[in-house]
From TrEMBL:
Domain AAA as annotated: residue spans: 11-187
Lineage: Bacteria, Bacillati, Actinomycetota, Actinomycetes, Micromonosporales
Name of the protein described by the UniProt record: Chromosome partitioning protein ParA
Family: Belongs to the ParA family.
Signal sequence interval, chain numbering: none
Role summary: May play a role in septum formation.
Gene (UniProt): parA_1
Length: 269
């Protein structure tokens, strides 16, 4: 039976890995839906100009829709741009429109450019148990804003060649942000994605990642599963599209572990 205890205080989780296509968005969307379906109040902030998390949650994000760009550049309140996700009562999303593509450059000349998102989150009076920030595949100012705003980093790692390559650059950026801008920041969660049991490679990658990150790696591993990749084209998460699929079951297990670990992670309870 799945239980997902609500945290005693809000958890802000940055989902990051500067490699594209490793499952960041899929993970942010499905973990958020799983937690919301089990009684948590959840917000997803789409911080990727491609807007895949907005698409995956079926939240309008065409040109002209108020979005996270407005929060970062104009100081608009999160509550003024957050949209309720259809069919999932406890879940909202701050969408990204194509406007966000300019933000990386525009932020350079803005006051407190690294902490715009942190300020928006701190100023938000809406009560959330979880805020997930879906990062773009880069280590630029958008990702830095996410790292400054979060207490936790979750790193999805795809089980393939060179899985750990580039993670070094991410971890040193995290260390920099932690020492200069956000002492509360820690890598708390690593999730293996697109795991293919039939290959010896997946097994080797898993061993490598567990050796490197120890107990930050969730026991739950997300298999490569076609239902996961089909779901967005039906404007759904796999959790609602096919809750009995192996992909959905694994994401439910991962969300449960995240909820249960919350109390144990340093400084969270
Ligand atoms: P990122 O946000 O890191 O760029 P995505 O979450 O968009 O990565 O995933 C990249 C692609 O892989 C997408 O097309 C997605 O549907 C697919 N995908 C992600 N996870 C799985 C999975 N477990 N099984 C099959 N396909 C997946
Ligand atoms: Mg993405």
């Amino acid at each position: 039976e799945i239980t997902m205890p609500r945290p005693t205080r809000r958890r802000v989780v940055c989902v990051a890995n500067q490699k594209g296509g490793v499952g960041k968005t899929t993970t942010a969307v499905n973990i958020a839906v799983a937690l919301a379906l089990h009684g948590n109040r959840v917000l997803v902030i789409d911080l990727d100009p491609q807007g895949n998390a907005s698409t995956g949650l079926n939240v309008p994000h065409h040109v002209g829709v108020p979005d996270v760009y407005d929060c970062l550049i104009d100081g608009t309140a999160l509550a003024d741009v957050a949209q309720q996700v259809d069919g999932i009562p406890n879940l909202s999303c701050v969408p990204a429109t194509i406007d966000l593509a300019g933000a990386e450059i525009e932020l350079v000349s803005v006051v407190a450019r690294e902490s715009r998102l942190a300020r928006a989150i701190q100023a938000s009076s809406t009560e959330y148990d979880y805020i997930f920030i879906d990062c773009p595949p880069s280590l630029g100012l958008l990702t830095v804003n996410a790292l400054v705003a979060a207490q936790e980093v979750m790193i999805p790692i795809q089980c393939e060649y060179y899985a750990l390559e580039g993670v070094q650059a991410l971890t040193s950026n995290i260390a920099l942000v932690k020492s200069h801008l956000n002492p509360a920041l820690d890598i708390t969660t690593v999730l293996l994605t697109m795991y293919d049991r039939r290959t010896r490679l997946a097994d080797l990658v898993e061993q490598d990642v567990r050796a490197h990150f120890g107990d930050k790696v969730l026991h739950a591993v997300i298999p490569r599963n076609v239902r996961v990749s089909e779901a967005p084209s039906y404007s759904q998460s796999v959790m609602t599209y096919d809750p009995g699929s192996r992909g959905a079951i694994s994401y439910f297990e991962a969300a449960q572990e995240i909820a249960e670990r919350g109390a144990r992670v340093g400084g969270l309870a």
